[in-house]
Amino acid sequence: MLEGLVSTLTIDGWVVALLAYAAGSIGSLICLRNARLARLFSVVFGVAGGLIQVWVSLATVLEGSSVAWSTPSGVPLLDIGMRLDPLSAIFTLALGVVAIAVSIYSFGYTSALTGSRAAILGFFFNLQLLSLSLVFTASNAFFFLIAWEVMALSAYCLLSFEHRREETRDAGILFFVMSHVGTGFLIVGFLVLHSMSGSFEFAKFHVTPAPLQYAVLFSVFLFGFGVKAGIVPLHIWLPAAHPVAPSNVSALMSGIVVKTGIYGLMRVYFDFLGTPPLWAAMVILAAGLGSGLLGVLYALMEKDLKRLLAYSTIENVGIILMGLGASLFFQSISKPALAALALIGALAHIVNHAMFKTLLFLGAGSVLHGTGTRDMERMGGLIRRMPATALLFLIGAVAISGLPPLNGFVGEWFTYQAFLAGFGSTPALTKLIFPVAGSLLALTGALAATAFVKAFGISFLALPRSSEAEHAHESHWTMLAGMGIPAVSCLVLGIGATWLLPALDSVTGQLVGFRPSASFVSSNGLVLASAALRGGTVSTAMIAIWLILLSAGAVLIGFAGFRRANRRAGSTWDCGLPGLTAENEYTATAFSKPLRMIFAALYQPKREIQQQFDVSPYYPKSILFESEVEQTFESRLYQPLKEKVLERAKRFRAIQAGSIHAYLAYIFLTLVILLLFGARP
Fold it and tell me: Distance between CA 604 and CA 599 in Å, rounded?
């Protein structure tokens, strides 16, 4: 009876959360002529829906239970069915926290919007939250695809919000096209699953495909979900979309929308298709390694702060795929404990990335709001004018760099441990992939730290390099409060990792049949352990305590010495120059120059130098330097493909003659062909 009561409360709570998002969407639209009231509707119902969603999702994860419910729609093959299980709940838990943070942030961020613009943004924002919730809980293929399409269309409308700019329209069209190509692959995959199971219900999709069927399903779902996840080379919409989208939308898209692709891959590969062949695991692992390394390498070259964060999202998707690939690998050789270890790394990074990437995009939005520019070359010195934003952005930068004791360290540490354990526990030459993968993950982590030293240092430190940076202003308190929620989450998920890890037991138990937290936590819940032979141990809580003690000691010693010393104020040493100016600073381009030279084969850098002379060619009056790197996938893959498609499309213009008689003939011929094929026994 108690279990039934819990299930009823879970269902009721979930329905209320969905209704809250729907009310926020409709309420915003009703207040079309009152921008402030529309913003208020969007925020209040977004926060309410997020809070209820967090409560329901957390209860589901902790209990390890699953609840399902459905309602007939009256349409054949389409039942409005939902199922909240531990896998879904992990994603909806992250969605709820992000929804709360971004909703609060949006109230201040959209304060300049007038007229109907605030209402339209609020409508599509809450519609996005609603559709994301349905994507994560849909239990019917038709219903899933409808929710998936609503999610894609609302995301398109959100990122195209500033549609008057050509750059925005181009990015929106690219996202729209890529999304629908991916959806086409998903439709094929679900039709194949239907042909094998005789149903469109997810519960009936637990099949054992033949090798050829598995290859087809693996491929179409990898392409279909890989587009949303931003897997290289399907990633090109991400660096195009994020810079032009409103920053609150970028935070939601990078924190959660990208995760819908990861959710789809996990649902299919772990839940539907059973034990994978070894080659499939190797493909996922290779895709993760490639996405992680290439994503961070392109991030390092960016001077646009939001494009840097977009490429960083690709890198972190790669890290998640590394964990998933390793987990599938261990499943294929029947090692459930190691599969759970790798899966823990992926799951932790899914949640952690949602937190710190939301924080970083909201921070970038505050910088854009305060300076009016995304160009890091025009920033500098913002820590003096935006101290709260600088502190919060620094927390996100440390977390995404994978440094303890913050949360980004935890998922990467478990992934490292899985790679180390895999080398000593796998047969034949396949074990060699793990030291290679571990080395590339280490390189990716080091480059990510470099990228965010650049992002924070160039943007917030030194002197202002433009009038925009000189006159920057701190963000509205609601924007800072919205950023504070994921910042606190980064601290809690990092320092409290040993206490929060058991919450993932229900997910690993569902997907790989092993609950590992008892062997992954030791010393009364203070130490993380990999439970593998010669595995490592670490305590984020103790690291945090030592950091606090050392910092406090240094502050006390410095304060005591400062009070006793004779103080004299003087100018900063300027190397004998007349005085330090912004021209003496490192720029984003200069910071990344060494790596641009090392990886020149990938970047194919191009530069142009123009000099202006006054009297003598030996004494230039001014020097203009421009440098850019080639976007390899766009120029070498997609641009030629686009040209070939357009060339082929021109040949079909002949059938578009503008004649009604020709069009009637086409219809007649189509009907004849359908009748001929339909008449066959």
Answer: 8
Query: Exposed e or buried b for every residue in 533-560, given b needs 16+ CB within 10 A?
Result: eebeebbbbebbeeeeeeeeeeeeeeee
The residues near 630 (Cβ < 8 Å, ≥ 6 apart) are 603, 604, 605, 606
Tokens of 661: 């008689």
Q: Residue 476 phi/psi, 5° resolution?
A: -60, 150
Residue 261 pLDDT:
96
Instruction: Give the full edge-to-edge strand order of the sheet including 521-522.
Output: 521-522, 527-529, 537-538
Strand ranges inside 478-526, DSSP E: 521-522
Are 549 and 561 in contact, with CB atoms under 8 Å apart? no
Q: How far apart are CA 171 and CA 239, in angstroms?
A: 9
Token duo for residue 301: 């070259």
What are the CA-CA distances from residue 554 to residues 284, 292, 557, 568 (Å)? 46, 37, 5, 21
Residue 31: name the closest of 125, 124, 139, 116 by CA.
Answer: 116
Distance CA 548, CA 574 (A): 34
Query: Rounded to an integer, what is the distance from CA 655 to the centroid of its chain?
Result: 43
Residues 6+ apart with CB under 8 A from 50: 17, 95, 96, 97, 98, 99, 100, 103, 129
CB atoms within 10 A of CB 117: 16
- Is the pTM above the cut of 0.85? yes
Q: Quick check: 71 and 139 in contact, CB under 8 A?
A: no
**Contact yes or no for 50/96 (Cβ under 8 A):** yes
First to last CA, the chain: 54
233 cis-preceded (ω within 30 degrees of 0): yes
Q: How far apart are CA 402 and CA 370, in angstroms?
A: 28
Question: Per the structure block, which two tokens stand in for 206?
Answer: 């637990």
* Nearest partner of 311 among 297, 299, 294, 293, judged by Cα: 299
* Per-residue tokens: 447: 């480059």
CA-wise closest residue to 156 among 91, 45, 253, 42: 253
Under a CB-based contact definition with an 8 Å cutoff, are residues 382 and 456 in contact? Answer: no
In whole angstroms, give the CA distance from residue 356 to residue 489: 8
Long-range (24+ apart) CB contacts under 8 A made by 593-599 are 595/297, 595/300, 595/301, 595/447, 595/450, 596/301, 596/627, 596/629, 599/297
Look at residue 552 in the predicted model and tell me its pLDDT.
Answer: 86
User: Environment class of residue 571 by beta-carbon count within 10 Å: exposed (0-12), middle (13-18) or buried (19+)?
Assistant: exposed
Q: Is 211 exposed, middle or buried (0-12, 13-18, 19+ CB in 10 A)?
A: exposed
Measured distance CA(307)–CA(376) in Å, rounded? 11
User: Please, which residues have CB within 8 angstroms of residue 665's CB and are 6 or more apart in sequence?
Assistant: none
CA distances from 626 to 164, 611, 629, 634, 647 (A): 28, 12, 11, 21, 34
> Is 153 in contact with 173 (CB distance < 8 Å)?
no
Bridge partners, 620 (sequence order): 613
Structural tokens at position 518: 């008892």
- Name the residue with tokens 């009876």: 1
Q: Quick count: other Cβ atoms within 10 Å of Cβ 681?
A: 2
Q: Percent of the chain beyond pLDDT 90?
A: 57
Q: How many C-beta neighbours within 10 Å does residue 601 have? A: 6
What is the per-residue pLDDT across 407-462, written as a single tens digit (0 to 9) for each?
999 999 999 988 988 877 766 667 788 889 999 999 999 999 999 999 999 999 98
What pLDDT does 1 receive? 43
CB atoms within 10 A of CB 279: 12
- Residue 2 has a pLDDT of 40
Contact 486, 355 (CB under 8 A): yes
What secondary structure letter does DSSP report for 290?
H
- Regions of the chain short of the pLDDT cut 70: 1-9, 73-77, 426-429, 523-525, 531-535, 561-566, 657, 678-681
In one letter, which amino acid is 114? T
